[in-house]
Amino acid sequence: MSNHDFTNQRIFPAARSIKEYEKLLRTNFEAIFLLNSHVSQLKSLMQMARSANKKIFLHADLVQGLKTDEYAAQFLCQEIKPAGIISTRKNVVLTAKKNSIIAIQRLFLLDSIALESSYKLLETTKPDYIEVLPGVMPHIITEVYERTQIPIIAGGLIREKQEVLNAIEAGAIGVTTSRQDLWDI
């Protein structure tokens, strides 16, 4: 996949509630990340997105009422059909790829051990994108991109406009954020 999946969008607003999600459907953002949802709401949420001409990237690990295993991933790909699926789990990312849905591997880079095991995971999953958390480590964003050549999205703990700019300058194609004050920059 290429950066063209997101056109020229650099801020990827992340909705933590249905209210925020509905608000984002009325914005100019093409790509929206949906954090918290419930399995019973997914079909109607996707219909709303299609009506609003939005691409939804669904955090599979944060869908209440859905176990994040291969069967759940199959259900999301075949029945819900978001533009992309975000997950920390190898089998979910691999299932999304198999179903031609944009696969985003979410990585929590807490220390050197987590970073090294993430590199091993990425060799297996080969996702379309990597979401690096926390996204406030420009040198790590640069390192992960140089080592993997997979486009990076920065997320987590990004609170200031300058942190958004630092992440993009370090090589991230964009930033996910649930902070509404950063949605407009």
UniProtKB/TrEMBL annotation:
Keyword hit for RNA-binding: yes
One Pfam family hit: G3P_antiterm
InterPro entries assigned: Aldolase_TIM, GlpP
Assigned keywords, A-Z: Glycerol metabolism, RNA-binding, Transcription, Transcription regulation
GO biological process, one term: glycerol metabolic process
Superkingdom assignment: Bacteria
MF term (GO), any: transcription antitermination factor activity, RNA binding
Role, per record: Regulates expression of the glpD operon. In the presence of glycerol 3-phosphate (G3P) causes antitermination of transcription of glpD at the inverted repeat of the leader region to enhance its transcription. Binds and stabilizes glpD leader mRNA.
Record's protein name: Glycerol uptake operon antiterminator regulatory protein
Organism in which the protein naturally occurs: Halalkalibacter akibai (strain ATCC 43226 / DSM 21942 / CIP 109018 / JCM 9157 / 1139) (Bacillus akibai)
Taxonomic lineage from the root: Bacteria, Bacillati, Bacillota, Bacilli, Bacillales
